[in-house]
Amino acid sequence: MPSSKKAKKKKTGTQKQGSRKLRESLTKKKDRALKILGELERLYPAPECALTHESALQLLVATILSAQCTDERVNMVTPALFDRYNSAHAFAEAETAELESLVQSTGFYRNKAKNIIGAGQVLVRDFNSDVPDNMDDLLTLPGVARKTANVILGTWFEKNEGFVVDTHIGRLAHRFDLTWSSRDSKDAVKIERDLMEVFPQDRWTDVGHMFILHGRAICNARKPLCDQCTLTESCPSAFEHEKDAIAKKKSVTKNKAKRSKVSKSGKRSN
């Protein structure tokens, strides 16, 4: 006897995530993602990793340092760092205090120095001082989680095994409404899974770089420049920030008027 249960359709969600949500099928969401991709390719024809590096090892160290730190700050620190330590063996043998002093300005420097030294030791011991080119081995290195591994695999080895999700990518994924299972812009695991579903695999790394570039240039966190953005037709959140700002300003003005009215009423009664 055939089951009476209806087949469940994949939900792309309409829950609020700080941006307006569209009611659209996954197919339509993929089509819109491709349209966004096309415009991003026009805007940023040669996207590259923002972290300055000349080897897989340098990229590994720079990415570890980038946690809770801007890429600009990391790029200010790494020239002297890479001049002092030019191999996995050099990092493995580094004096903790000296390494800490070189990376201090990136924040959380004690933990970062510990991870960099530990990663160097594992590379020397287990990988003949070479940075591995697969996810499983990369995840055995201290200080390396999936995000860092994706950066190295996609940027250096040109292997699209996952989607890097940093603060810019998480923010744009929500504003573009290209994630439906994540709680918010910091829910990296679910955002990655959703983005992997709507973008072609061979473009995952480039899309990540382009999202970061667009997030810095136009779609910044506090005040997105929607009036300068050429993606507004594909963005459900276009101009929402301005509307929210206007509504907030009206609310503040209204509350001030109420307080002023109460104050004047109190003075008259006295």
What does it look like?
The protein has helices at 26-43, 56-65, 71-84, 88-92, 96-103, 109-126, 135-138, 146-155, 167-175, 188-198, 204-217, 240-269. The protein is globular and about 75 Å long. The chain contains twelve helices and no strands. The protein folds into three domains: 26-48 and 163-228, Helix-hairpin-Helix base-excision DNA repair enzymes (C-terminal) (Endonuclease Iii, domain 2); 56-155, Orthogonal Bundle (Endonuclease III, domain 1), CATH 1.10.340; 239-270. It has 270 residues and is mainly alpha-helical. Helix 9 (167-175) packs across helix 11.
Structural class: mainly alpha
**Count of individual helical segments:** 12
Biggest beta sheet summary: none
Strand content: under 5%
- General form: globular
CATH architecture of the largest domain: Orthogonal Bundle
Order of helices and strands: HHHHHHHHHHHH
What gyration radius follows from the Cα positions, in whole Å?
Answer: 24 Å
What are the SSEs and their pairings?
Blueprint: H1 26-43, H2 56-65, H3 71-84, H4 88-92, H5 96-103, H6 109-126, H7 135-138, H8 146-155, H9 167-175, H10 188-198, H11 204-217, H12 240-269
Helix pairs in contact: 2-8, 5-6, 9-11
